[in-house]
Amino acid sequence: MRLPHCILTAAILVFASTAHALPNMWTSGFGQGVTEYLITSPEKVVFNLNCTGNPDEQNILQHSVYLTLPDGTSVNSSNDGTEITVVIDNSQYQLPSFLGWRNGDNAWVSFINALAQAATFDVYVNDNKVGTFSPGLKNTQKELSDLSGCRTIHYSD
């Protein structure tokens, strides 16, 4: 009986720490086969890098980015018609709406590799800047030190 209480307490603490995260500091969490890396901008935009271990019907791991805007609106890189572009070190990374095709997979991995070394980055939705994130290189390298699950596109047992 004690173990479920410990699990519940741990889950509440993880949720609480994520819900009230400091601006420009990466946090992460894992649940139900999904690892999330979150950061909040001073403008109150939440950037959620969502790396799944749950494959789709074609054994593709459909990783994505979710954004929560200050007005509560949510956008997802997996939505057709929504273009999310991340600018890192004067290079732009347009996030693919789905993975499992060569150009999309290459674009995703390039984005992940750049993000893992980003001291600052800007995010655009449909060509409109929605936020600037400045975690600093030390925080990024510490919290995003193992993004191997985000780089893997094709699921294997």
Account of the 3D structure:
This protein is α+β, with helices and mostly antiparallel strands. It has one domain (23-151). The protein is 27% helix and 30% strand. The chain contains four helices and nine strands; from the N terminus they run αβββββββαββαα. It has helices spanning 2-19, 102-115, 137-143, 148-151, and strands at 27-31, 34-40, 46-52, 64-68, 74-76, 84-88, 91-94, 121-125, 128-133. The strands form two sheets. Strands 1-2-3-4-5 form a five-stranded antiparallel beta sheet, covered by helices on one side. Strand 6 (84-88) and strand 7 (91-94) form a beta hairpin. The protein is globular. Mean pLDDT is 89; it is low at 1-18. Residues 1-21 form the signal peptide. Keywords: Signal.
Overall body shape:
globular
Mean pLDDT: 89
Strand order of the largest sheet: 1-2-3-4-5
Low-confidence stretches: 1-18
Helix-strand string: HEEEEEEEHEEHH
How would a crystallographer describe the biggest sheet? 5 strands, antiparallel
First-residue to last-residue Cα separation: 33 Å
Helix-residue proportion: 25-40%
Total of DSSP H or I helical runs spanning 4+ residues: 4
Based on secondary structure, the structural category is alpha+beta
User: What proportion strand?
Assistant: 25-35%
Q: Taking Cα atoms only, what radius of gyration do you get, to the nearest Å?
A: 16 Å
The total tally of domains equals 1
- Strand tally: 9
